């Protein structure tokens, strides 16, 4: 009983300070906050590729579960991962390519495992996945040319 009271006091103080990572102050009350749709890095990359929208549709933050169907039984947890960008044909009928941006967080062991799983899923589903590393400059011309070349290989 005393621990629950202490926990509530700590959560109340953390909420007051704005540093509570706990999503709820009580079991009944959940606190949610709007977040940005894309990170600064993703938004910068999108601004580099948005001219492709003259020929294609770019969908940011697409979930694997919306574009990959698991054929065998079992949980689909591995499909609940977002890919930074998907490029479709103009009428959204055909997925042409997926794009992942790898920043320094992708060097973590947990992220490397996730990235490997995503790559394997895409390979098995016959979906082209390309990766850009944010530690490189990724100039607009390079990015656009690489994406266009990869799309040509899929058509």
Provide key terms for this protein:
alpha+beta; about 160 residues; 4 strands; 5 helices; four-stranded mixed beta sheet; single chain
Describe the protein in words.
This protein is an alpha+beta fold and 155 residues long. Helix content is 39%, strand content 19%. The protein has a four-stranded mixed beta sheet, with helices on both faces.
Describe the secondary structure blueprint for this structure.
Layout: H1 2-17, H2 40-49, E1 56-63, H3 64-67, E2 82-89, E3 95-102, H4 109-124, E4 129-133, H5 140-154
Parallel strand pairs: 3-4
Antiparallel strand pairs: 1-2, 2-3
| Uncertain parts | none
What is the global morphology? Answer: globular
N-to-C SSE series?
A: HHEHEEHEH
Q: State the strand order across the main sheet.
A: 1-2-3-4
Helical segment count: 5
Number of strands: 4
| Helix proportion | 25-40%
How can the largest sheet be summarized? 4 strands, mixed
| Estimated radius of gyration | 20 Å
- Beta-strand portion reads 15-25%
State mean pLDDT (0 to 100 scale). Answer: 87
Structural class: alpha+beta
